[in-house]
Specification:
A hairpin with a 2-residue loop joins strand 15 and strand 16. The protein starts with a helix and ends with a strand. The strands form two sheets. The protein has a 16-stranded antiparallel barrel. It is mainly beta. The protein contains three helices and 19 strands.
């Protein structure tokens, strides 16, 4: 995401055309699906590998994401397939991920989540869209009575999403872009499904950029509307309160707000050796706050957790072509007794 913000600060410096043409279906879908691009990254000290690959053949596009964490043994895979010939865009998505989460009081154990989604997104002429989908999700965890026995919980649900887009709007010397969506989920007993609940999700992601500074914000709120049980939500770890331990907190409801800023320090190209050089040195500031739990915890803002961070991003070139991006950051939870956490890595 840092490289994307660095690129956006350069684009913001260019003059915008006065007469905008209507965006194509594919371009609008790239705004709705945030990871609609190819990217590879390696994160330390956790030894986490992430890969996102996008392939387009005619009007058909496929986006595959893979993740593996060497330290925790976590892994995940997802695939989203769309057909962008018409304004109604059919979508098929599958995913499978394995996490280690705080389920038992005596420590963390594993949870596997598998899902299948079939739906269609309608793109209106206005910057708005809706997605209607049927989803099937299966959760696997060790049984509390016997850890050698697998406990399965299944949910079949109908989801309805209402979304909107902001595209390259100039205001106060910044170019603003972003997406937001409201999603309603209703899980119901069907055949072998055994979960029955209703949830609401409110999500937003946006950027404001100019030639020197860029701001990025993310808001993610999930609340249980009805039902006695729903799969728990988790906070903690990089991108979800970076100053805390991975999946340190859990609860049925969750709220997360992240704000990052990127300040360009230098765009000059500095030769290193051969055809290798670096440029686009940027300083980054990170802030995140969030909470998980029941209704009482979510309405008590004094109990919300906060995380601050700072770091640098360095772009590398080989024969004037973008090669990779190096990043380093330090994060601190704003609670007494919490130690610093650091991350560094490379992104291509």
């Amino acid at each position: 995401m840092a490289q994307e913000l660095l690129s956006q600060t350069a684009i913001a410096a260019e003059k915008q055309p006065e007469d905008k043409k209507p965006l194509s279906v594919e371009v609008r879908m790239k705004r709705v699906i945030l990871r609609y691009r190819s990217e590879v990254s390696f994160l330390m000290p956790e030894g986490e590998f992430n890969a996102s690959l996008a392939k387009k053949i005619g009007q058909f596009s496929s986006i595959a994401n893979a993740k593996y964490n060497f330290m925790r043994g976590e892994m995940g895979f997802s695939s989203t397939n769309i057909f962008t010939r018409f304004r109604i865009v059919p979508q098929l998505g599958v995913y499978d991920k394995l996490n280690f989460v705080p389920i038992f009081d005596d420590g963390k154990t594993w949870q596997r989540e598998q899902g299948l989604t079939l739906g269609g997104r309608l793109l209106f002429k206005l910057p708005a869209n809706t997605l209607t989908s049927i989803r099937y999700i299966r959760y696997s965890t060790p049984s509390e009575e016997n850890l050698q026995t697998i406990k399965l919980e299944k949910a079949t649900m109908l989801s309805q999403t209402f979304g909107g887009e902001v595209d390259s709007v100039s205001f106060l010397s910044f170019v603003h872009s972003g997406v937001f969506e409201l999603q309603l989920d209703k899980a119901f007993p069907f055949r072998n499904s055994n979960l029955n609940y209703a949830q609401m999700h409110l999500r937003s992601h946006g950027q404001a950029t100019n030639s020197i500074i860029a701001f990025e914000g993310e808001f993610d709120w999930t609340t249980l509307l009805k039902g006695n049980y729903a799969p728990p939500r988790y906070l903690g770890g990089r991108r979800r309160l970076s100053g805390y331990e991975h999946n340190e907190f859990s609860g049925l409801n969750s709220l997360l707000l992240r704000i990052n800023s990127t300040i360009m320090l230098s765009r000059n190209q500095h030769h290193i050796w051969g055809g290798l050089s670096f440029c686009d040195i940027a300083w980054r500031f990170y802030y995140a706050t969030g909470q998980v739990g029941g209704d009482e915890a979510m309405t008590n803002f004094k109990t919300y957790r906060h995380s601050l961070g700072s770091g640098f991003v360095l772009g590398n070139l080989f024969r004037d072509q973008h090669l990779w991006e190096l990043f380093f950051s330090l994060h601190k939870a704003l609670e007494p007794g919490r130690s610093l956490k650091f991350y560094f890595g490379v992104k291509m």
